[in-house]
Please model this.
Amino acid sequence: MPNQFDVIVVGGGPAGYVCAIRAAQLGLTTAVVEKEKLGGVCVNIGCIPTKALLHSAYVANLVAHDAKELGIEVGAVKTDYGVAMRRSRKVSEQNSKGVEFLMKKHKVTVLKGSAILAPNRTVRVGKDEHQARKAVVIATGSRVKGIPQIGLEINKTTVISSDEALFLESPPKTLIIVGAGAVGCEFADIFNAFGSKVTLIEALPRILPLEDSESSDTVSKSFKKRGMAVHAGAKVKKATLAKDKAALEVETGGKNENIEAEKVLMAAGRAVNTENLGLQEAGVQLTERGFIKVNPATLETTAPGIYAIGDVAGPPMLAHKGSREGIVAAELIAGHHPQPIKYDNVPSVTYCHPEVASIGMTEEQVKERKLDYQVGRFPFSANGRARTSSETEGFVKIIRDKKYGEILGAHIVGAHASEIIHELAVARQNEYTVEEVDLAIHAHPTLSEAIAEAALDSMGRVVHI
Ligand code: NAI
Model:
């Protein structure tokens, strides 16, 4: 007889473990299958350790460049990536242990090993068989990928991914980063602060191509000012790898350029983990792009009783999107009627310095849809709180629907952008107008006042400029 559970979740990352907790809260007996550490990529080799390293990078820059102005003399600044790396590992381990604790607290059974689906909602883990009475939830996430077609297969020495970068003892002297999405920009920030000579290569015409072009331009300028080489609209044509260096032939600005570095960090997207799960046999179909085909209203796959959430279920491949899907999937499985997920209201944050945060449409998308809109902007250079901390780089930009005042999109570049974006996430979730955002009194002096001012600016009533 197989072990019986109501729900079996395959994958213990932020989608899977959150789903398991919610299922347990709703009285369902639940198991999570995990072959590595609980917390998944996010906790162990993603969001959490990178943010720990980005904090070290931030402090390194603060001490090196701003301390004196703040009245603090520290002498020559020396950085040590190994120390920062080990601290980031401790933070990750604490978080992973935290997830273990949460599983115990909610009486979720953790099954260690690789899961394979078998008929009738049966899940094999090693020699054991487990059966889910109500549902199996696939939350197996994604992994790094190289581009073997141009000779950039990840070999873990000269061509590395974030997986290896997070464990280096020392920063490479020279580093080429291929891809300037969130991963590329965050590691560019980190290694620049720790002394690597960083070259960032992006195939599309601008870095952070999914963000508003004003956000991309601001980060690009900031990175260049800090000494990084930024090539957007650049194509890697060929890679030649030696034992301790890599040479890339890059087409940039109509010319071919040879760029050499001690290491190449691949940050050109991730591949989803759909292999060796028995998906085909279980009747779970994939989309043309290789994600699991999911009904967005029910989060069910093409096989009844099998759900998919998180990165495997399609973009945006973000931890918080996966966690929300986890909660909603558990509630649907328990027979509840949760609010549908607003996929157009998932905040996006890149934690490089300056931070970039956004929600809703970019101005480019608003234009494409031929919507009638007004833009409100407010620079942090005119914000009192930003001045008090000498962090005046960046802006808030709000795109307002001209007729109804709907917040079509909002974009923030600057200190704590990742934190203050949520006012606009709440506003959009509840369909508040731009006027209503300003009507809420914003404490003074705060960075959030820049949001109220951008709201006012979109109506032609900005106060402080
Ligand atoms: P991404 O898809 O966001 O960015 C990859 C970038 O590489 C794109 O801009 C793409 O145009 C570029 N690219 C692709 N092929 C290229 C080539 N041959 N040469 C030059 N550039 C090329 O993927 P990324 O940054 O690897 O992140 C993976 C996933 O993880 C994304 O969904 C991302 O949003 C998520 N993530 C989120 C973070 C956050 O929320 N802060 C942090 C890290 C990752």
Summary: The pocket of NAI is lined by residues 147, 178-184, 186, 201-204, 209, 236, 267-270, 316-318, 349-351 (CB under 6 Å). The mean pLDDT is 97. The longest helix spans residues 81-105.
